[in-house]
Amino acid sequence: MLHPATIEKNQRRALGFGLAAVGLWSTVATAFKIALGFLTPLHLLFLAALTSTLIFFLLLAWQGRMRETWRLARSRWRFYLLQGTINPFVYYWVLFAAYDQLPAQQAQAINYTWAITMALLAVPILKQKLSARELAAMVVAYGGVVLIATGGQWDFAATNWFGIGLALLSTVLWAGYWLINTRNTDAPIPAMFWCFAFGTLLLAVAVAIDPRPLPWHEWRALAAAAYVGIFEMGLTFLLWLTAMRTAERTSQLSMLIFLSPFISLILIYFILGEAIQITTLIGLSLICLGLYLQRKPT
What we know:
Elements: H1 11-25, H2 28-36, H3 41-63, H4 66-101, H5 104-111, H6 114-126, H7 132-150, H8 161-180, H9 188-209, H10 219-246, H11 250-256, H12 260-272, H13 278-295
Helix pairs in contact: 1-10, 2-5, 2-10, 2-12, 3-4, 3-9, 3-10, 4-8, 4-9, 5-8, 5-12, 5-13, 6-7, 6-8, 7-13
């Protein structure tokens, strides 16, 4: 997977990798809630990030790219320390805290607006201008967020604004992370390895300071964290990157993303037992409509 010498354009293969990635991403909202039943957000993040770092390390060792990876660290360690601070250290800590506060259906739907947030942040960061269509897409998408946040009752006093705020902040962090990377031409797997390596070091310091001990004896906690590290942060990223690299037409791949939140709701209903609110379905549909309007070519 993603070995430099074996990348070939193959649309059917790309769609297969893309569907596998979307299917795995659809499970992570459920996995987050299950894992947070055993772990604090910090402990979950540390164990998951450590797992992901090991995955990237083993892949690079298998590809024989460790010398290249060390050279990258020597020349760019300050940049990747910053990147690792944003992702995974701060971004996932905020995201897991949001999932700890909110029902899974709310957190995953709101987090899905990160692409809209990225278009908004591109104005001050990349000096881009918003078109009328993009502004309309934002209004539609964030209308969906308000509907999901309030449950359609408009009872603002009963709304968990702290959890909603964390979920929205996670979209800012994630969008900002990728905007910073728009001009980064480093090879993606060594780059991701150093992001997670530096992030894991920071998390290790945070865990050492935290008075709550890691539940090393609880196998369910370790298994849940490993699942998140493999299928949210590690393997799934590689599957998607492989899909993008081998695709002849990336537009077909981008449409697969719209499947993920709705599959996720099905898993949330059957596995977590959350009753899916009609306002969640309507709000999520508005978010997806906003994303479609944003991506639709003029």
